[in-house]
């Protein structure tokens, strides 16, 4: 990676970000002026923000699935403990007293 060449021999995927950062750093009076370029380059290398977003999405999906399972279990419990639902096709015999 330090050479600027990727695995296939061409430029690495982050090389354009490195060039942008190096150009900014060379022209800047203060290093903190190139903070955005540095963050872009580091993100390209490590994908930390991308991984954090993916983790948050995965957590939200798991939370929604757990909620749906809980709701489904409640509905199944209600149906299992309630009386059968009649649709009125068969009328019960009148009880004799």
Helix fraction bin: 55-70%
Major β-sheet profile: none
The number of helical segments is 3
Global mean pLDDT: 87
What proportion of the residues form beta strands (DSSP E)? under 5%
Number of strands: 0
Distance between the termini: 93 Å
Regions with little confidence, pLDDT below 50 for 5+ residues? none
Task: Give the C-alpha Rg.
Answer: 31 Å
Principal-axis shape: rod-shaped
Topology pattern, helix = H, strand = E? HHH
Structural class: mainly alpha
Notes on the structure:
Disulfide bonds join 14-44, 24-34. One of its GO terms (biological process) is mitochondrial respiratory chain complex I assembly. Mammalian complex I is composed of 45 different subunits. This is a component of the iron-sulfur (IP) fragment of the enzyme. Keywords: Disulfide bond, Electron transport, Membrane, Mitochondrion, Mitochondrion inner membrane, Respiratory chain, Transport. It comes from Dacryopinax primogenitus (strain DJM 731) (Brown rot fungus). By secondary structure, this protein is mainly α. The protein has a domain at 17-79. It is 61% helix and 0% strand. α1 (15-27) packs antiparallel against α2. The mean pLDDT is 87.
Brief rundown of the structure:
This protein has 97 residues and is mainly alpha-helical.
Name some characteristics of this structure.
single chain; rod-shaped; 3 helices
